[in-house]
């Protein structure tokens, strides 16, 4: 298998559509967005109540607008709702997580996780109405004129998919559903269970649904703005 480079060609340019708002409206929107996002919480206790599929679909549409290296869009979003498939994913994930918590995890990592109360049990993978499994494509597979399979490198795939997932989580939160970011380690079983091609590497599982009645979340705080924002004039 050979590796091909993307052909270099001048892009077709179009006028930018941009609505410049008044400073007052900009600040109002920025404050309103912050107030919505500061209420977002990671949820581990899901209700089995159905969620309209259009919410998931539109959130993925929003995620797919994310910027990416050379506009290569190196992501795939596999939506799983079948109960049997979710059970298989849970069983495989729990097997990896049990090994991680009991044998592979460094002491420091377990100490960092302790305040969150997590363990190897992952019932949300079965209970949540939808699992969105995100895959990263470090390269695309194409065929040249001779029919030989070639790899086409995708640039900044890790960063690009990370941005897309951020938009996905935001879109789902604003639509009124709960999410969780789950990254069992290793995640190779997801590609096998979901029949994905060899160039797709599992990046994350995002369960989507409504919180279970009486769901609880850890009491946590975020760092102060002064700790995370540095202004240099």
- Overall shape: globular
Helix content: 25-40%
- CA-atom Rg in angstroms: 20 Å
Low-confidence sequence ranges = none
Content-based structural category: alpha+beta
Task: Report the end-to-end length measured between terminal Cα atoms.
Answer: 51 Å
Order of helices and strands: EHHEHHHEEEHEHEH
Beta strand %: 15-25%
Number of helices: 8
Q: How many β strands by DSSP?
A: 7
Rounded mean pLDDT score = 94
Across the major sheet, the strand order is 2-3-7-6
Largest beta-sheet characterization: 4 strands, antiparallel
3D structure, described in words:
- The protein is an alpha+beta fold and 233 residues long.
- Helix content is 37%, strand content 17%.
- Helix 2 runs antiparallel to helix 6.
Outline of this structure?
This protein is α+β, with helices and mostly antiparallel strands.
What would the keywords be for this entry?
single chain, 233 residues, alpha+beta, four-stranded antiparallel beta sheet
Task: Write the SSE topology.
Blueprint (H helix, E strand, L loop, with lengths): L1 E3 L18 H15 L15 H11 L11 E6 L2 H22 L2 H7 L10 H4 L2 E8 L1 E5 L5 E5 L3 H18 L3 E2 L8 H6 L6 E10 L15 H4 L5
Parallel strand pairs: 1-5
Antiparallel strand pairs: 2-3, 3-7, 4-5, 6-7
């Amino acid at each position: 298998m050979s590796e091909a480079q993307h052909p270099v060609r001048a892009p077709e340019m179009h006028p930018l559509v941009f609505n410049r708002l008044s400073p007052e409206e900009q600040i109002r929107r920025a404050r309103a967005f912050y107030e919505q996002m500061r209420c977002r919480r990671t949820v581990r206790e899901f209700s089995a109540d159905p969620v309209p599929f259009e919410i998931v679909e539109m959130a993925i549409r929003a995620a797919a607008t994310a910027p990416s290296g050379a506009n290569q869009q190196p992501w795939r979003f596999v939506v799983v709702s079948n109960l049997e498939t979710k059970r298989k994913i849970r069983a495989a994930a729990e097997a990896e997580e049990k090994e991680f918590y009991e044998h592979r995890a460094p002491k420091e990592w377990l100490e960092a996780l302790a305040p969150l109360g997590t363990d190897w049990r992952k019932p949300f993978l079965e209970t949540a109405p939808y699992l969105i499994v995100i895959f990263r494509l470090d390269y695309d597979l194409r065929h040249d004129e001779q029919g030989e399979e070639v790899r086409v490198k995708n640039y900044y795939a890790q960063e690009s998919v990370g941005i897309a997932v951020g938009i996905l989580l935001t879109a789902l939160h604003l639509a009124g559903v709960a999410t969780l970011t789950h990254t069992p380690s290793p995640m190779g079983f997801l590609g096998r269970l979901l029949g994905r091609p060899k160039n797709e590497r599992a990046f994350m599982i995002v369960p989507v649904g409504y919180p279970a009645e009486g769901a609880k979340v850890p009491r946590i705080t975020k760092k102060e703005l002064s700790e995370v924002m540095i202004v240099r004039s």
